[in-house]
Each structure stands twice: as C-alpha cells, then as structure tokens.
Amino acid sequence: MGNSLGKLFTITSFGESHGRCVGIIVDGCPAGLPLTESDIQREVDKRKPGTSIAATKRAEEDKVEVFSGTFNRVTTGAPICLLIQNKDIDSTAYEKARFLARPGHADYTAFSKYGGFNDFRGGGIFSGRITAAFVMAGAVAKKLLGTIDVEVLAHTVELGGVKAEPKEIDQIRANTAKNQFRCADPKAAAEMAEVVEKVKREDDSLGGIIEGIALNMPVGLGEPVFDTLEGDMAKALFAIPAVKGVEFGSGFSAARKRGSENNDPFTIKNGEVVTVTNNAGGVLGGISNGMPLVVRAAIKPTSSIAKSQQTVDFKDMKNAALKVAGRHDVCIVPRAVVVVESMMAVTLCDFAMRAELIPRALK
Amino acid sequence: MGNSLGKLFTITSFGESHGRCVGIIVDGCPAGLPLTESDIQREVDKRKPGTSIAATKRAEEDKVEVFSGTFNRVTTGAPICLLIQNKDIDSTAYEKARFLARPGHADYTAFSKYGGFNDFRGGGIFSGRITAAFVMAGAVAKKLLGTIDVEVLAHTVELGGVKAEPKEIDQIRANTAKNQFRCADPKAAAEMAEVVEKVKREDDSLGGIIEGIALNMPVGLGEPVFDTLEGDMAKALFAIPAVKGVEFGSGFSAARKRGSENNDPFTIKNGEVVTVTNNAGGVLGGISNGMPLVVRAAIKPTSSIAKSQQTVDFKDMKNAALKVAGRHDVCIVPRAVVVVESMMAVTLCDFAMRAELIPRALK
Amino acid sequence: MGNSLGKLFTITSFGESHGRCVGIIVDGCPAGLPLTESDIQREVDKRKPGTSIAATKRAEEDKVEVFSGTFNRVTTGAPICLLIQNKDIDSTAYEKARFLARPGHADYTAFSKYGGFNDFRGGGIFSGRITAAFVMAGAVAKKLLGTIDVEVLAHTVELGGVKAEPKEIDQIRANTAKNQFRCADPKAAAEMAEVVEKVKREDDSLGGIIEGIALNMPVGLGEPVFDTLEGDMAKALFAIPAVKGVEFGSGFSAARKRGSENNDPFTIKNGEVVTVTNNAGGVLGGISNGMPLVVRAAIKPTSSIAKSQQTVDFKDMKNAALKVAGRHDVCIVPRAVVVVESMMAVTLCDFAMRAELIPRALK
Amino acid sequence: MGNSLGKLFTITSFGESHGRCVGIIVDGCPAGLPLTESDIQREVDKRKPGTSIAATKRAEEDKVEVFSGTFNRVTTGAPICLLIQNKDIDSTAYEKARFLARPGHADYTAFSKYGGFNDFRGGGIFSGRITAAFVMAGAVAKKLLGTIDVEVLAHTVELGGVKAEPKEIDQIRANTAKNQFRCADPKAAAEMAEVVEKVKREDDSLGGIIEGIALNMPVGLGEPVFDTLEGDMAKALFAIPAVKGVEFGSGFSAARKRGSENNDPFTIKNGEVVTVTNNAGGVLGGISNGMPLVVRAAIKPTSSIAKSQQTVDFKDMKNAALKVAGRHDVCIVPRAVVVVESMMAVTLCDFAMRAELIPRALK
Predict the structure, then answer these.
(1) At C119, phi and psi to the nearest 5?
(2) Mutate to test the interface with C, among A223, A353, A358 (most CBs of C within 10 A)
(3) How far apart, in whole angstroms, are the C-alpha atoms of residue D236 and residue C225?
(4) Do B356 and D355 touch (CB under 8 A)?
C-alpha cells in the first residue's frame, strides 16, 4: 500500500526494476486532452542515460505504451495506463549479493518490511527505475498544465559541490538542455564534468541539488491546513529515491534572515498584486501567490559505488565487505531533473483541479 | 478541504485564531489508551508563550477540553474531539488593516482563494494558533507511541544565525527544557538571548532550525513508493506555518558528499543490524531502518514585524505602507519545538498503525 | 477510524449518545454560503421525537452550535464544526445491563471490536442519536445544493406493513409534513397510526421504507467505475443505523422485469434528453441522467423492545433474558426521513463538487 | 477519477471493453502470498460465457497476465498489476450507432459527462467486461481471505422471476457449479432454462437476484460510523453494472417485520456467542458479528436487447428507433455470480486488514 498519490489527479505506480515492466495509472485526467505515446516518450527520453558521463550504461529502450484511457489519440476521462516493458535486464549481480545490505539502499529495510519476499533484483520498487513511471505521469500532467499556461522546468543548481551561478529564466530555458548536466550555467557544467570524471575514476559517486520552477502560476493553489502546496509537493518529491531535503524559496537560508529581509514586499504591477522579491518561493500560507514557484531538492550521492564498503549479511547476521557490482550512475542528478519536473507537475495538476482551474472535460 | 491528515491515525483540524475555538478530531486512536485532559494540557502548555523574551504577549489560557472519544478516562475507539475555546481575543488591529496584505502572511492568498469570505482576524486558519490543535493531536500520538517505546523529541539547533553545538541524546533530553529557547546547548542559548533582545529592539524578527529526533524506532515504518516516511513527515511538518524547508539525516549537506562518505556502513550490534553512522537520518528507501530518525525543519523569521513595510491594499489595488500591530513573537522557533514533535508523532503513529505495530484495541 | 465520508465535501462525525455531545466537521464547504445556526436548527428539529406516537420520550433540546467555519454568518472556506451538547442523559439502564447484548444492537460487536472499552451508554456511537450530526451536515449540503437548484426530499412509503399509494411530487411536498409519519398518503398515515398504537401496546416495534427523491438533477453526477452515484449514496445511507437495504429506481423489482419493460425509452422534451419512464431511478452507468433520482432505504424495526428477549451475558458467557429498558421509538421511520434526506444531500454535494458544478467560492 | 476502491487493500481499475485491455492494480496485498496466473485464471474462467444459453457469443480468451507484484510466484508487497489483453473485438455496431442512446445504458450520461470524448465502443468503461478485472482482484482477495479461513460464495437465488428454494450451505457449495445458472436449486435451474429460452426467442432479456454468503466470519469487521461493513460492501457491489439494489439479511423484508421477529436472539454455542436466527445477515452496528454474512444484489435485465426500442440521437437531438446489435447476454446473472463473490472478497479483505487480521507480511 502507499502507491497512489493525489486526490483528483491520482497516479498509481506499479512495476519493478527487473520485473516485467514499470508503469503508472493516471486517474482523473479530464477527457479531451490530445495525448499520444510520442508525447510521453519525449519526456521519458529526457531521463535516459544518454551519453552523459555521469550515467549508467544500462541501455533500456524505455518504449512507452498506452494501455488504456485514450481513444483516437485523445483522453477519454477513463484511467490512463502507461507502461514500459523492461528489456535489458541482468539480475546476476543481485542474485549473488541478495543478503548483503548495500549501504544507502533499501535492501535491509525492504527485507525486514516484506518478510524477505520483496523482489530484490535491481532494488525492485526501490530502484530509481520506477521514476520512469513518474515521468510518464508527469508528461500527462505537463500537458494538462499547458492548458492553463503553467510551465514547469527544473535544472541542476549544484553537483558534486560545484554551484551554478543563478540565471534568468530565459537562460535556464535555453541552456539546460545544452549540457549533459542540465545546468543553466555552462561554466559550472564544465566544472561538473571534471569532478564527475575524477570521482568516477575513484569508484565513488556524487550528489547535488535540483531546482524546480513553475511559471505563470495562478493564485490559489493549495488546500491548507494540511494539504499545503509545499507539503504535497515535498511529499511527491521525497518519493524520488535519493531526495533527502526539500525547501521552498529562501528555504533553509530563511532561518538566518530577519523578517524585514525575508518578507517579500507587495506591490502592484500591471494591475496585479505581485511581490518585489520571492523569498516565499511563490507560496504564502500553503497557497500559491502567483509568483514563480521555486523549490529545491537535495539529492544524495548515488548509493551504489564500486568502492569496497563495510556491511552485513542480514541472513547470516554477520559482517561483510561489499563492492556494488552492476551498472550505476556516478551522479543521478542530471537524469533526475525531469523527474523533479514530473513530480512538480503532478502535484500542481492535482491542486489546479482542486481549484477547478482545469475543467473535468476539455473542449 | 484539505484539513485531514493520516490514513489510519487521522486528524482533522478546525477552528480559527479569533473564532470560537481551535480543535482537532483524532480518528483511529485504538480503544484502551488511558487519556485525560491533563495529559494533553501538559503538551499544550509547552507551546505557551510563557516568559520567553521571544514570545508574544497574547495570554491565552489554552484550556484543553475533551468533547468525545473517551469514557472513564480511557479511549473508546471512537473519534476523539479535542478543543480549546479562545478567550483572549482582540481583533481590532485586524479589522482596521483588513485589506492590507501583511508581507509573508496569507492575507492576500486567502482573500483570493476564498473570494474574500475568509476569516481574516488573526489570520484565521493561517494563524500559528492552529498549531495548538496539532499539539493536542500530538499528545495522543505520543502516548500511543509510548506503548511501543518510541520517543519523540525536538530541540532548537539554530536561532537567529546562532548555531547550537551538536549534543548527545542525554544532554538534549536534559537541557532542552532548561532554557527559553529549547536549545540543548546552554552556551548557544545565551547567545540567542542576546540576538533576540537586539532584534526585538529593532522591531524585527528571527527564524531558526528545529531538529526532531525519534528514538527506539522500529524497522519498517513507511509505505513506498509514495507514502514514504520522509514524504509524509515532510508534508506534516510543512503544515506548520513558517516551515520553508525539511531535510532528513545529512539532508542538503548530502549533496556535497561522496557516496563513500554519505553511505552509512552496516554492522551487527547486540545481534541487530545497525549503521555505523546515520547520514540517512534513520530512513532508507522511505522506510525506517531502526536508527534514530533525524529531521530538521527550517523556520522563517516571524512575518509580523512592527517595522514599516511596503505592501498593497488589495481591495483598492494601490500601494501602501504597513506596520503590523498586534502581539507577535520575535521568533516562534522555541514555541514551535513541541509542534514539530507533535507532527512527527502524528506521522509515526499513522505508520506504526499501518505496520500493525499498535493494535487496534490495547489491553 | 472510518468516521469521515466524502472526497471534496467531507464530513467527519464525532460524539456519543450519552457523552458530552454529538457533532460533525464539514470540510470542503465553499466560502460564501450564508449559514446560521437557525438554518441548521430547522433541519435538526425535523428529527426530533415531537409528538409522534411512534417516537421516544427522550426530550433533548438539541441546540445546534457552530464552533468554526463561519464569519459574519457566512462560510469562510474553513472546516465547519457543528455541535449539539447532550443534556437529557440517563445512563442508569445501560450501566445495569452493560454486558447483556441487546438483540439487534451493536453491544456485542462493539464490545468485541473495541476490547470492552467502547462507551456502551445509550449505544455510544452506534446510537441513532449520532444521526443528529448527520442532519447538521445535511443542512449545509442542502443549502449548497440549493445554489444549483437541486432539491432533496424524502417520505415514508411503507411503515409496519402499511404501504402508501404513490403520489406526485406536489403531493409529496405538500403532505409529508402534515402527518406524524411523514407520509404523502394521508390515508396510509391513518392506518399507520393504528398499527403503531397496537404494536406499542404489545411492547414491540416496527420498520418501514423511506423513499428519497432528488429533483432538478444535473446530468453527470457520479464517478465510475467505483465511485458511482448509487454506490456512494448507498454507503452513506447504510451509515444510518437500522438501514438494511438500499435500492434505486425499480430496484429489486427490476429483477423480475424484462429488458423491454425495465429500460427507460429516451425522448426529447423541451430540447432536452429525458426518459419516458424512470426505472433507472435517475442513474445510468453510475452517473445521473437528469431524471429525478429515486432511492429507497429499508429500515428494520427498532431493536429496542420492552418485550422479553433471549440473549447472553457476554462477560460471564451465559444465557440470559432481557427486557430493554430506556426510552425508545416504536418505529424510527418518521424521524429517519430527514436523515435519509441528509445523507442523500451530502452525497450529491460531494459529486456536484467533483463535477465542478458548485464553485469553490460562491459569489 | 473514482477508479480506486479500498483503504488498505486498494484496487484500481483500468481498461475498456474494446480498448487494448482490461486490468486492475491491487495495492496492499501482503508479501508472501503464493499467487500464480492460473490462480487468477481459474476465477476469471467462471465469468466466461461458456455454453450457457443465457450468455453472449463474444468469445474472449481472457488470458490473465501478471505484470508486477510477484516474484518466484509469491507476492512481494508491491502493487500487483493484473491484465487481460482484449482480443475478439468487433466495434462496427458501436461506430454506426454512436450517437443513439441505448436505453438502460450509459451512452448518454457518459457522452454528457466526458464531453463526447468517452470511448463508446462496447460501452468503454461502462461495459460489463470491466468486471473481468474485478474478478482478478477478487481472486487475490479470496486467496488472502483463505489465510484466515473466510470463505466467500454466491449463487443465483432468482432469475427471470423464478425463485430458488432456500438451500443449506452444503447444497449451495455442491449444486451451484453444476448448472449453467449457478443456482443451488436444480429444479429452479430447470425452470430458469425454460424462461431464458422463451425470452431469448422474443429478443428480450431478464434480470435476477444473486445472494452472496461469507462463512467463518471473524467478529469485528467494519469501521463505523461511515465505513460500515454494509456500506462499503454495498458500494463495491453497486460498481457492478446492472446492480440496482443491495440488501443484507432480512433486508427489505425487515421493513415488514416486528422487532420481536427480526431481532436475532443471542445464545452461547460451543463457548461462542452466536445468534439463533440471522436476520441481521451477520452485521450488527455495521460490524460483523461472526454469523454468516448474507447479502443480496438485484440485477436488472440486460439493457441490450434486439427488440426495437424508442430512443434519441443525442447529437442531432431527435427521436429515433434502435435495435441493439452486437453480442449480448439474455441474462447476465449467472456470469455475475463470481463478480459478486469478488466484490465481497475485496471488501472483506480490506476490513480484515483494517482489523489487523491479515498480517502485512505472511509467513
């Protein structure tokens, strides 16, 4: 249990890393949205390892299939089943090391929770691979948000300790796709490449920070006191394996500011209420205020490293050493950028529907 | 909508800052838990302004009343209605400045979302005052967690830029209640006092960081892929007004570490699987691993400041200046400590019930 | 757990028969609905025993109090807490017979489920008294439905074996309030009075059937495949103690018809698609078709009877005889009429909101 | 939206009659349950038209595929995706009559609700075909209930006006599979055959009543006040197209009984509390009392009939005549028997998990 997310735009995840497929059911998508496999494929492809030096060599084709919910390439109002059948599976390494808890991974917690019946191959449902399903749902959500002109984009703002310089939206839009790190700052991207190369040689891994931005935000998304925009989006982002922190606007740095600095003064601009600064990250009282929504997710370094690590065999209950075999990313940050966008889009879609901004049947 | 939280241990918030009451319904508490008003009162009192120099002068008695769900001082399995009737209400300031958006507050977003019908007095449901209701629910949750020996505690680790030195659990337990900042580091607490005094004189406000810890954690709490322990707890914490960031374990600093540093090696200790370090903050794959759960919440500086601020009158749609009158905390961090504990406890309780660790009827 | 109902218009019940109160939280009511205590009192009064010969002599004042969610007599968008404080409580009979399972009642199942901790006095949450809370929620729902011109009304169509003749809507509206049985057929009402008198003298009780009708139904309410209009309304109606059957349109009699009889032919009337007959009871495929919604609920005879019954003492696990003391209705059907209306209204409101027919903030 | 059912044992339906597949996600099945495709196939085969004279000639192979959630033929605790790919599809008749509302069907309501984008072929999600997915979920639920010895069975008690004589459980078990009507009374089954033959010749259709029984029921299933055993089971049953009424125990006939007749006297039997009669159908106060659960569902006559019917073309908004072409059941009652069992099993499973009777991980 716990595999569904969202109240009116509800996604239900299924599938495993080394099972038959990864997939997602999108329930609540209004009828009338043009939607084809290639719309979704385009997004899923952004998550592919590609030629990035940071990424795994697992070369899934990741072919999107629509199993239900559309007719004549348009959504019908029925649940949309989106599926990617797994192809390039090699479970040998996992079978051998089945009872060795890979540090940083869910092997031990999953074994305990599911009484040893969990599908451990490739991490099962705990694999980053399930985020391919998140991206399929995100593709639908983004198209829906497009009907109310909301744009969601994310980019790498930090990787392996290299911080990107803050950039304007136009530059973020223009630069992010141009480098393998999805970083809007080309200079930082170059530095990231160096760090990744170095760490790769050392059989180690790196983390980073992804910033997500939503533009043309309507005022009023969020349903306090519990279903706040921040709370629900944070929950969605923490479903991405490796996310260990989420902050909005000035976030943790707000803790060091004074009220007079951190409060965003209001003003009138083009007949609309706006704020002069955006320390709030576009959210006041758990509700969007119309300014860009700004969220950052901290991504821990990839847990799988070829370096030798201390661990335990939890079947025999004895200490052991482990080098994680298999194919892994030195840093998953670049590939996670589209996943962050997807979880943001899914959350915003749900709130837009709760605020009745997206009609139940589109024209 | 959006005022309920939790799947098996479900809390439903109601009431307003300047309305008749603040209250909460706790549904899903097993029958058989001894529970009296004084059990709850004790927790609520920790949230009181008290004599802290950081706190408001609003002097609510905050008397807890149990309206349903117990019989002969024991829970019955029926929904528990907990209520505090508001007494010390002065809405004058709010009535006058009704259409002036206080920077950092939800005045404008609430006005927009609810078509101007929201109860603006004291911020209505957006007031920190509703967290008194959270604490009542937390009191029940803590008692329940006590039946499986889980202990939840929180403390101030940063306030106004003053960082506390890391302390052992024993010191945290011992020191936190001893100073008005609920800080385990007495030296830092003294510095915090100075900063608060200074900022108070300047009509400004401060933020900080609260760390929450859960001890004696069972392995297996959390229901991935979406209902992760981190995700649901983050959502619960973001319901606390002023929280702008949440991180677990090494959190944002993980982004700067290497895998070999951030991965927690496993080992056997007293016949149990433990980790040598706890960068994971007790959560692997969204599931508790038995190590202490460690979470930090960033609290922005109090939005209400007496200093003059630029804002707008959103009725007349014109710029305006505003000094926020009323009674406010220079820094809400110390009073929010028990609220963080409460939201943690509520989340853990829900997961403990989902994991069948707390029986539906206690003996 | 299990005390909340509805997705967007969510009600949460609390309180007990002989506890401090019965109450309900209504979450999801749009801002901007004029709502006063007297609006709700009017509905609650319809449930009062009054002077009906069928009814109990328990003489609760049942004074409605609004504890939250309105400001200046208008809803704010915040959760509405509605409460009736219990006054006329006499638990003596219950204390004495605590471990004697009253046949037809939940004494034994509640004792088993809640480990003996349930508040048994007056049946606790299993008392018909909690339906006063349902009616408070129904009062809000009816007002909301009024904004889209949907009218909900119910009447007694059978009581103690006496069947009412089918009547036109006008007569149902006109006649129902005129007799103590809330029956649209005055002749049947007279017969019902005779049967009730007779059965009362025999220390026995009676059941009946209530028919609910919703007029001016929009097309499109219901969210198949699981959240059908019939399914959700049936669930809501089964929450009324004593309901043992629910049917829509031709209902159980449909089982004996042929398709050519039971199918409702479509035709055009005043430029709208209507059906010539209404065997479907206004629902096709789980979705309203614009015709009047027609539902019937079977009410079992009151379980509490003064006649001696065979039972067990479930503490000592031995057989026993029992005459149920206390104050009870010979037949609860007349008082349940407004409860049926309320649960219908609550269900319709939720679906109307899911279909975006009621805006989140009214003008 | 509205395609998920259940709180801890949650099923999510997807797929269409003439789309690529029908399928279901089962989330919340504990890890450790042996489960193979043939376990599920066996149940799905019971729903097949077979050689019954009452059934359609559509000859789907209905081959069950498990897409996720098992490993080495045992459940893993992850969501189980069960899928049947549609094979024998002929949509010609539907394309031609697209805008003609078939009386008794959801064509018009679906068209209105989904803005004309619904997949009308074969009725889309409103087809009885989706119940094949329900049966797949039911197969899992039955296996789970088996671990606590709960047995669910259903049989035809009325068809085309022919009533079966009441039979003992042993006879129901023995006789139901022996005839094409799934009727425990062989004599009635023979009469049903005659009626069906006759009505078939007349291009008409028939309805009936299915009784479901659950044996070895534990005491305590059901979560009042809203999530009653009756309410949730009724909701699940109303998701079966054609169900128009649901009753428990004496049901509608209770309305005509006196309390002294309808109340079930308690007694002690083999050291357990039981009732002498079972007018309650095993449910008191919305909670199971340990007696057999007895529920009846009224099935309306098949809406699709070859006889000419009056209807409208809702595109051109004009009256029309219609003979429903395609392949249809004269009476779906026999095939719906296993569907009723499935929805009962799904409901009971959810409550058994809520009552912690089925552990989250089986041994």
Answers:
(1) -80, 100
(2) A223
(3) 10
(4) no
Instruction: Select from A126, A254, A285 the Cβ nearest to the Cβ of B109.
Output: A285
Does the beta-carbon distance from C31 to B117 stay under 8 Å? Answer: yes
Cβ pair C115:B32 closer than 8 A:
yes
ipTM for the predicted complex comes to: 0.97
Beta strands in chain A (DSSP E): 4-5, 10-15, 21-27, 64-68, 70-71, 74-75, 80-85, 151-159, 162-163, 208-215, 243-248, 266-269, 272-275, 283-284, 287-288, 293-299, 309-313, 318-322
pLDDT of D51 reads 63
User: What's the pLDDT at A49?
Assistant: 82
Rounded to whole angstroms, the Cα distance separating C227 from D28 reads 19
Band (pLDDT 50/70/90 cuts) for residue C37 is: very high
Between chain A and chain B, the number of residue pairs with CB atoms below 8 A apart is 371
Cβ–Cβ of D359/B355 closer than 8 Å? no
Task: Using CA atoms of D329, D330, D333, D337 in order, give the dihedral in degrees to the nearest 10.
Answer: -30
Cα separation, D277 vs A264, in Å, equals 71
3-state secondary structure of B141: helix
The one-character DSSP state at C164 is P
Residue B60: pLDDT over 70: no
The Cα–Cα gap between B57 and B48 comes to 10
Confidence of residue D57 (pLDDT cuts 50, 70, 90): low
Question: Could you report the per-residue pLDDT of C183-216, keeping only the tens digit for each?
Answer: 999 999 999 999 999 999 999 999 999 999 999 9
Cα separation, D142 vs D349, in Å, equals: 8
Contact call for D119 and A78, based on CB within 8 A: yes
CB contact under 8 A, B205 and A259: yes
pLDDT in tens, C225-282: 999 999 999 999 999 999 999 999 999 999 999 999 999 999 999 999 999 999 999 9
| Residues from chain A contacting residue C360 (CB–CB below 8 Å) | 354-356
Phi-psi region of C359 (alpha: psi -120 to 50; beta: other; left: phi over 0): beta
**Do the beta carbons of residue D344 and residue D154 sit within 8 Å?**
yes
Say if the Cβ atoms of A225 and B105 lie within 8 Å. Answer: no
Q: If pLDDT is split at 50, 70 and 90, which confidence band does B41 have?
A: very high
CB neighbour list of residue C180: distance below 8 Å, 6 or more residues apart: C50, C51, C52, C53, C54, C189, C193, C334
Q: Are strands B80-85 and B74-75 parallel, antiparallel or unpaired?
A: unpaired
CA angle B223, A27, C286 (to 5 degrees): 120
Average pLDDT, integer, range A47-64: 77
Q: At what angle do helices B333-354 and B229-238 cross, to 10 degrees?
A: 140
Q: Is D141 helix (H, G, I), strand (E, B) or coil?
A: helix
- Determine if the pTM surpasses 0.80: yes
Quote the minimal CA–CA distance from C44 to chain A in Å: 29
CA distance C124 to chain D (A): 11
- How far does D78 lie from chain B, in Å, by closest CA? 9
Note the pLDDT tens digit of each residue in B332-351.
Answer: 999 999 999 999 999 999 99
For an interface test with C, the pick among A25, A221, A356 (most C C-beta atoms closer than 10 Å) comes out as A356
Q: One-letter amino acid identity for C64? A: V
Question: Would the CB atoms of B113 and A300 count as touching at under 8 Å?
Answer: no
Question: What residue in A sits closest to B225 (Cα-Cα)?
Answer: A3
Q: What is the pLDDT of residue A57?
A: 63
Name chain D contacts of A67, Cβ cutoff 8 Å. 14-15, 19-21, 23, 83
pLDDT tens profile C311-356:
999 999 999 999 887 668 899 999 999 999 999 999 999 999 999 9
The predicted structure's pLDDT at residue A59: 64
Question: Does the structure show a pLDDT above 90 at D91?
Answer: no
Nearest chain B residue to C362, by CA: B115
Residue type, C46: K
